[in-house]
Amino acid sequence: MKFADVAGHEEVKRRLREMVDNDRIPHALLLEGPSGSGKFMLARAFAQYIHCQHRHNGDSCGQCPSCRQHQAFNHIDTIYSFPVVKKSGRTALSDDYREQFSEFISESPYMDFDRWVTKLDNINAQPMIYVEEGAELLRRLTYMTRSSRFKTVLLWLPERLKEETANKLLKLVEEPFGDTIFIMVSNNGRGILPTIYSRTQRIAVQRYSDSELEGVLQAQGMDAAQAADMARIADGSVNQAWKTASVSTERRKYFDLFAELMRKAYGRKVLELRGWSKAVAELGREPQMQFIDYCCRLIRESFVMHLHVDSLLTLSAAERGFVDRFFPFINEKNVVDMIELFNRSRRDIAGNGNAKIIFFDLAVRVIMLIRRK
Ligand SMILES: [Zn+2]
């Protein structure tokens, strides 16, 4: 991975480059910032730059043997350390999961943690960096023969270091063996044990701007319209954007049902609303509750439109088009009752009530509330 392969973050790249060019690489570097902002790619590009034999124009060459090893995820002087789960009869070393990790970083270069958990084959697991891993790092760094000047350890998520592991690592971070460089990548600097955190040189990696994110998503193959929508609501996170995109089909369905409810309620089409409640009743309990949450969100967003605070809105283009016309119907006289009505229906659904009756009752009450001014 070259710096050029990482979108944005020009200032961070400049600082990393200068550390190498001026021969002032810290022994423990921490890249911290929100998930889905490309920190681990920066770390990989940095390690590759450190080892590259033909650096030029502020980037690694991508061609020398060392770059090739990095790109193939088997650089001889580089160790990857990351959270894993403990399975019975197995040690809990990162290296045991090397293959999965290699797949993971190529499938999910922005390091979607949930996806990593799935990859570990146990969705209820809480992956950690266990004490064995600390001992293993110590052992490997002691005995590792070295082909370049620096050994690098890429440590993903130091906030998941067990305390005993951190204590083992402390020695390494404090009195590095020869020229070992720890490059840590954290989504949550505050979650790192202070003993480790205070010994790192820290670089904050900012979230992507909406337009940067839009560009990244398109480069990853998302179509332009969806990339624009996702960039607006994903808070700068590539991972969040893809997750949201995958549920956007659901969301579209909820949107259609919401718009239909409001239109028919305004038109007092009671008979048609009976058909509507039948359709919602067929969704199943879990989606019904999600649908109600979705309705509450759109109602709130519509109310917020009165306040002219555009930046609070997190709507897709279709939703925005609807809300632009709909918002005058949600006002100070009905917003509280409207939300309360939906919440009550949610409780009734959760309590195993008859969905057809609950949603029809809700629809009839919306008829009354929507005309209140
Ligand atoms: Zn190179």
Detailed description of the structure:
With about 375 residues, the chain is an alpha/beta fold. It folds into two domains: about 5-205, P-loop containing nucleotide triphosphate hydrolases (Rossmann fold, 3-Layer(aba) Sandwich); about 250-370, Four Helix Bundle (Hemerythrin (Met), subunit A). Helices cover about 55% and strands about 5% of the residues. It is built from 16 helices and five strands. The protein has helices at about 10-20, 40-50, 65-70, 100-105, 115-120, 130-145, 165-175, 195, 210-220, 225-235, 240-265, 270-280, 285-305, 315-325, 335-350, 355-370; strands at about 30, 80, 150-155, 180-185, 200-205. The chain has a five-stranded parallel β-sheet, with helices on both faces. The protein is elongated. The mean pLDDT is about 90. Bound molecules: zinc ion. The site of zinc ion has 9 residues, from helix 3. The site of zinc ion (ZN) has 9 residues, from helix 3.
